[in-house]
């Protein structure tokens, strides 16, 4: 079984930064990523809020650059699904490509946007269906769009979209918002926002691009069609923490609990990025988490030796 000093689980901005910092610190480091390096940010057509890129940069390119930089400084990578994490003298990470051991672990497996699971959603993802208003809102300048959800994220997204779109429909399955009062006040005061209550999406319409929504009122059970050019799904996130639940403490929503050094409840295990509790869920914040986690892991390994 291959042995490392630190293994990072997840190849988004937090994981790639952690891998870069660990490798530059001289640690033998492995990063395990199940999909594309860059994580969720690869779905962003243009990232405009990451420092250093005045004209913005595509999420795909930013992820590729982070990956290349980390590998340049010695990070080893493997594409595999992590299936388990066991504790012994060393931590053992089980994957679909074999098992690996390390004294320190950095969990940066991120989270996934909850989907509506309706017809057209998967097919039109990236073609009018988005899960990130901050990333993609500018693409819908002067168009009419819809936001699905009624919590803080949905209303924040709707307000962000009102800066670009001609009109923003907020579609919520209940007859009142779940968002905080301050956000609600801002939303109700924004003339570009129109609320469609007690309604769910049954289908996203369109062939190559989103053309509209088929809606159902949950009280009357009446169906209707709404023409929009974009759909922003904001019904929550699910952290990818299931296979770590027996090793580190999670909060009620499944996020890993850390302190300010990114340390978890298990000695030698750190967490960074969207998977940890109270993450800002922004690329810049994830990068900061990754750097902190790697430096904390380095300090832990020094004290352990």
Textual characterization of the structure:
- This protein has helices spanning about 15-25, 60-70, 135, 150-160, 180-190, 285-305; strands at about 1-10, 30-35, 75-80, 80-85, 90-95, 100-105, 110-115, 130, 145-150, 165-170, 195, 200-205, 210-215, 225, 230-235, 235-240, 270.
- The chain has about 300 residues and is of the alpha/beta class.
- Helix 2 links the parallel strand 2 (about 30-35) and strand 3.
- The two termini are about 20 Å apart.
Q: Mind sketching the topology for me?
A:
Elements lengths: L1 E8 L3 H12 L4 E5 L25 H14 L3 E4 L2 E6 L3 E5 L2 E10 L3 E3 L15 E2 L2 H4 L7 E5 L3 H10 L5 E5 L9 H9 L3 E4 L2 E7 L6 E6 L5 E5 L2 E4 L3 E3 L29 E3 L11 H22 L1
Parallel strand pairs: 1-2, 1-6, 2-3, 6-17, 8-15, 9-10, 9-15, 10-11
Antiparallel strand pairs: 4-5, 5-6, 7-16, 12-13, 13-14
Helix pairs in contact: 1-2, 1-6, 4-5
